[in-house]
Please model this.
Amino acid sequence: MRDQVSKKQGCNLTPGETVIGRWHGNRYRVIRELGRGATGTVYLVSSEKGQAALKAGSDAMSITSEVNVLQHFSKVQGEHLGPSLFDVDDFTAADGTYPFYVMEYIEGEEVIPFVQKRGVEWSGILAVQLLGDLDRLHQAGWIFGDLKPENLLVTGPPYRVRWFDVGGTTRSGRAIKEFTEFFDRGYWGLGGRKADPSYDLFAVAMILINSAFPARFERREKDNLSLLLKKTAERPALKQFAPVIRRALTGKYKEAMEMRKDLMDRIGTGSPRRERKAAQPQTGVPAAPVIPATRKAHRKVRKTLRKTPSGIVETLLVAAFLLLGYGLYLFVQIM
Amino acid sequence: MSKGTLRQVLLLTDGCSNAGEDPTAIAALAKEHGITVNVIGIMEESRNGSQGLKEVEEIALSGGGVSQIVYARQLSQTVQMVTRKAMTQTIQGVVNKELQQILGEDHELEDLAPAKRGQVVEVVDDLGETMDLEVVILVDTSASMTDKLPMVQEALVDLSVSLRSRTGGNRFALYSFPGRRRDVEKQLGWTPELDSLAGVFKKLTPGGLTPTGPALQEALRIFRNRMNTSEDRWDERSGLEETGM
Ligand SMILES: Nc1ncnc2c1ncn2[C@@H]1O[C@H](COP(=O)(O)OP(=O)(O)OP(=O)(O)O)[C@@H](O)[C@H]1O
Model:
């Protein structure tokens, strides 16, 4: 659908093909396609310096716009705020010249399947990590904009959430460049689209909600705040964060760190769920609490569920490991 | 480069025009006046009328704008994306022309070294954020659109939310076609916000003809009137005066 907007179709590179930059002369061998988006196609490539992700498109404008953002990040970078940028160039193919950039390859798993597989307690922890990164981004004067599970990957172990796709990243105070309805406060009638930290924090709350409602849902004509709060109350895993979610949805948090602290307090004080799990580990079968509410849940979810271990011994073992890992993780996080 | 005003027509329709002038021709004329014509084709979930879709693309093409076919349910996001994309495209066109004057003919963004492109894109971004924007919205209210109108209304309010978040000013005017007595009917005069849309489409009596060409003609007239009377007189007052409703 979205493709009809662009002038020409994106380029098509096949595995094994080599791309040579017109300006800098660097060579990249295509290993495989990683994914396609509105602005271009991303490939896993190998170069002299190792593996990397190469994004090629046909529109120099949008490619350059993303490069600009990535460049700003490397300026404020302490550790990783989005993938690091390695190279910017053009290559010539039979049907024309394509602008591209090369960035760090982020190897990881998508957030929702990860949470489904490992246990819903991870959604809170990943959110805490995300909020730490967002805070640094906000301090640097940028708002992520198009924050959603599809733009996040969990790398590791040790597990850590990372983002890519900076197409929506907007300077603070301007109009959000790109957004996705479910995560957009404007869509829910709960605020405007001027880029400020609370815009991203709203999206974080929606990511939490999304992790308990993988199939998502649509807005109503009015009174959407009560709809979202009702949904939050429906799932035990969300209910524990209800006050935090409410504050984020109503724009009460002005800084990522405030929300991060509240979230950590909630995870730290021992929710009922965690106690129950410690007492009877067999109820802690991974993914069991998050069986999708509707059949519409995407295919990946179902695939993950099928992998649920069947034997009780296996179950206990997995639960025990999970608990151990989780405990350690929590410890590290809170320290 | 002086900060000017971007002028766009946003046409929302679900199919073929069947009355009056060829809309493609009027779109081409609009382009000559520096007005971009963007078209959103709203499709029925069940069927796909490829004829209507082709016209959607052609109008936008000759109007120098952006077109997009979409199901009614996805309208909100699309309306805002098309508007934004068209703004960038127009500004980029202007900046490209300036570039050509500096670098010589046949030179575009792609001919600059990647390191230099960044600055050009920043300029385009800045202008998109700060330039004033005037949009005449034309909504097809022929019979087949009846059940899509609530979604159209929602999408337009949403567009207003997006554009209001910019630093630059916005003015909208809303017209529907066919009108009760004439081809085109005014729903809202120039206004800075579209919050007041509730009920606008309820008054409509969807009818049979789809005079897309005449509707575009009218949009062009509205713009030309405004350009003549309020030339360089963009301020809050002129907006308020005309809003008075
Ligand atoms: N740095 C990276 N490391 C690993 N995978 C990546 C990286 N960047 C992008 N990808 C993969 O490529 C896919 C498309 O990339 P991306 O989302 O950036 O494209 P886009 O054109 O911005 O898409 P969208 O339509 O979401 O805006 C992603 O879904 C992701 O799986």
Observations:
- The domain at 2-103 of chain A is CATH 3.30.200.20 (Phosphorylase Kinase; domain 1).
- The radius of gyration of chain A is 21 Å.
- The longest strand of chain A covers residues 27-36.
